[in-house]
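Section 3.1 - Work completed
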Amino acid sequence: MREIKFRAWDADSKPPRMIEGNHIQHLSIVYIERASMPLMQYTGLKDKNGVEVYEGDIFKSENHNPLNFQVEFVEGAWCATSPYVKDYPTEMYHFSLESIEVISNIHENPELLEVESDD
């Protein structure tokens, strides 16, 4: 059975921060929604370093360099999406967990998903 956990991005705190663990349990869902804190759910997966993989995380894969992927919930499955592969989300089970490494998340480093221009 998968452990159900969440974290939230608090962009209004100074400095902005991720709220996790026991801290998020003390916040009500109403407060989180009113404060526009995006909730991110734990996928039940861990990367090659034992880091928990959450919705909104950005990871790199040794098998797919130099692409970075974002974890999203798409049509009932945890998927990896990339701006380089726009029309085809890849379900997470296609990745070897020993080959992926969480490097950030979309709130702290969205530039990691930017497409480099050829200009």
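Second construct:
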Amino acid sequence: MFGKLRFAKRLFRDLPKHAKLAYCLLRDDRVSKLHKAAFGATLAVGLNPFLNLPEFVPVVGELDALAITLLALRVFIATTPEDIVDEHRRLLVDERSVFDLDLRAGERHAARITDAVTRGFRSNAEDSATTDIIELPSSTSVSNERQVGA
């Protein structure tokens, strides 16, 4: 029982670290395309919803998919040249990695989109507020128009 809990704890603690490192390695041109393709194929098999994992037992099927994912990440990292992995690990610690740069760029992009949407809602609200006010002609101008037309 405790072994499974330790495994789950390690799985959920290690998975984000390995995923960030794998992201950086996938973006690195020094890692071979064949190596990247093998990793992608392994992930596709591990996360395939049609794979016959024992999903009739709650949580076990999902843990198996996570375990396969973690195994694929570890094998990908272990088979990548060590100097490249060490370089990306240092950059991750310093928060200067490709992952961190892309994350910041995504945050800036999301902020710009949010600002644009907010401005759009504000301008639409202002436009609808001005169009909701319809000026009706005064009774004197209506009577004057009738007299002129007669």
